[in-house]
Amino acid sequence: MTEPLIRPARPDDAAALGALGRQTFLDTFVEGFGIPYPEADLTAFLDASFSPEAIAAKLQEPGAAWWVAERDGQLLAFANAGPNTLPHPDARPDHMELRRLYVGKAAQGLGLGTRLLTLALDWMVAHTAGPLWIGVWSGNLKARKLYAAYGFDKAGEYQYPVGSWRDDEFILRRG
Fold it and tell me: Could you give the percent of the chain with pLDDT greater than 90?
């Protein structure tokens, strides 16, 4: 087995990114945390967020960046950062936001999340003079501790839509 490679995402990664994102969301939030999303809301969210077409469009977003970790042609993890979209009174679109950091179940514990996070944060710092932002589910203590170790503090709260369901999220800020 070869060492995982981290590289920028390419347009031809869209389908694999969508499949990995969909499965990681299900593994983390539905199976892991047991959030009881109504089936119709979950399906609508997953289709809107992780279809190959949705990912292909997101890969083309100006000012955004995507990275993947792969081994032997299989995607294991990914990160996405770009212009801030979080609803905080101090946040502006020219600030940068870590939008997703997903590590597939089989790849957890390999250090890929930390490597992708470091890469994304370095990129974010290089692309804004403002603070960095992250939205994180309020119940994800592991992620909150990780981001705190990188200098992020809670700056607010908002509700993240999963269909018509609303997740309680924390807005984290660094800088």
Answer: 99
**Residue 137 pLDDT > 80:** yes
Question: What digits encode the pLDDT tens for the residues 52-95?
Answer: 999 999 999 999 999 999 999 999 999 999 999 999 999 999 99
Residues 109/68, Cβ–Cβ less than 8 Å: no
The residues, any chain, with a CB within 8 Å of residue 96's CB and separated by 6 or more, are 81, 82, 83, 84, 123, 124, 125, 127, 128, 130, 132, 133
Q: DSSP E strands: which ranges in the chain? A: 5-8, 65-71, 74-83, 96-103, 132-137, 153-162, 165-174
Cα-based distances in Å from 102 to 117, 126, 143: 10, 22, 11
Name 168's bridge partners: 159
Whether the CB-CB separation of 9 and 78 falls below 8 Å is answered with: yes
Integer Cα distance of 70 and 88 in angstroms: 34
Amino acid at 16: A
40 φ, ψ (degrees, to nearest 5): -65, -40
pLDDT at 2 over 90: no
Count of all residues that appear for the chain in the document: 175
pLDDT at 42 over 90: yes
